[in-house]
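Materials and Methods. Structural model of histidine kinase. The 651-residue sequence of histidine kinase from Dyadobacter luticola was retrieved and submitted for structure prediction as follows.
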Amino acid sequence: MGEIIRSYNWATSSVGPVDSWPQSLKTALSIILHSKFPMFLFWGKHLTCFYNDAYRPSLGDNGKHPSALGMPGEEVWPETWADIKPLIDSVLAGEGGTWSENQLLPIFRNGRMEDVYWTFSYSPVADESGKPCAVFVTCTETTGMVKTMTELKESKNLLEFAIDATELGVWDYNPRTNKFTGNVRLKEWFGLSPVCEIDLSHAIEVMAKKDQQRVTKAISDALVYELGGKYDIEYTIIHPATGFERMVRAKGKVWFTEDHEAYRFNGTLQDVTEQVAAQAQLEEIAEKMQLAINAGNLGSYELIFETGEIVATPQYKLHLGMATTEPLTFTKLVSLILPLDQEKVQRAVQTAVDQHTTFHADYRVTASDGSIRWVRAAGNPVYDDQDRAVKMVGVTLDITEQNEFAEALSKQVNERTVELQRSNDDLMQFAHVTSHDLKEPIRKIRIFAGRIQNELSAVLPEKGLRYLEKIQHASSRVMQMIEGILTYSEVNATKPEIEKIDLNKVIEDVETDLELMIHEKKATIRKVVLPEIEGTRVLLYQLFYNIMNNALKFSKENENAEIGITFQYLGDRVPAVEIAVADNGIGFDNEYQSRIFTTFARLNSKDSYEGSGLGLALCKKIVERHHGTIRASGQPGEGSVFHITLPLVQG
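The predicted structure was written out as tokens:
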């Protein structure tokens, strides 16, 4: 940056040639250029921009560098000027420096608008007379940190949710103090007082006598570095007040220093009372399962991988169309499967084994009588202590009749699909006819209203003529709405038509449709002449209708509503425009900036303010569909401002 500054033609800039620079500017630049910390300088009346090498990455690979150098601040930072200019003015007014931490300031870089977070300080630079003449900025981009902290917070919330959802007790034991802490659930199980730390001996006393010595030894073994620091044990807790017995499983890990000294031991406690009780019923359940298998005409099997032997029930062999007394191996099974299905079955078995998942396959076999039968098979791999698959255990079902039925049903579905397509075409034709029929009565209203105006204007009072004009205008708007809705419904299935949109006309249409509400709220709408942009007319109308409708709906009682609409271009090199819609309504707290655009989100009572909670969510969707951004800011009782950034040209 020092080289770039030296080669810059400063004679054409507002600061003049280098040899005319004051010492205060040279000193400030010396500090900036020799620093490895990101720094920026707004100098003089025009707030001319300087920055160092450490600051350059924040400008993006395809952003404001090097064109920002020597340019007025307002031209370099149009997208954030409304936020940072008051800070600059405060510093130059002699009110001292500022400090902002993790502040969201979206900027245009890398070819698009990005949400960027900054931690920065603004400090005054004094001229030779001692008065502030420039603003010295030290800053660092914290976007990555903010996103990381957000993700960590979400992960923490997910962890807490998982612990709560799985009903786990959580404990943390300090071997040096022999104290441990636990969550509320764990303390309730042990009948312990809700103090921060608990002596381990108090917890041991609550355990069943038969388990106390075993648990104590397991804890001691876990604290020995050479034994791996793992802890996994089941024991019974007897609540000291109620006598309720609860079987729990404790799992934990010990953390050691570099000197192999245990400094932390934490883990979870799971209530397995029901699981243990269920284990006692396994034999009964297994017997009932066998009855269910028989009743469901299911076959069952065990495939031994090492030998290829298949231990199968007679029903499974019948499914294969073979004799129940005939021995069965995996090789024999593959020979019965049709060649087209053999690879599929073998691949499904291998995938289940490799990925520890359930095996599923439908395949065809050639029965001993020459007929083709369909078999549906499922199973689970069984592994040994070394995680080697030793066998597959599962069930089979003869689905020959089901497949024959499915084929017949598929034929009927295809025939029905043709009928539905024909009906759909008829409905489309009906939509066009209906739209035409809706237009006709509106057209007649306009014709006869026009005749009244032309033929009876001499005898009608002025108020009657005004009413006729409103009828004409309203019927015209209804006609446009019918055509717009029909057009939108047609393009919604494909790609909406992009056209040049006069935003002034859009706002006028919104004002007309909100006329009664504007009158009721005694609202004043102040607006500047807006530019033309490319977009979809019906969507942009809906966007500004929702925002202005919200401004009126959330106006203050006993105070006339005010809406202001302004805009600014985002620099000559940025083909975009930012439109601001401000109101003097009830406002909102800025901590809800992102929540207000969430579907069905409401910040106010539905009894006080009507609405579905979809309006602003729809606005966000419309803006994103136009490749733009929308954000809001406000203060309770002081109104709100919506900032809408839209490209001038759709790509």
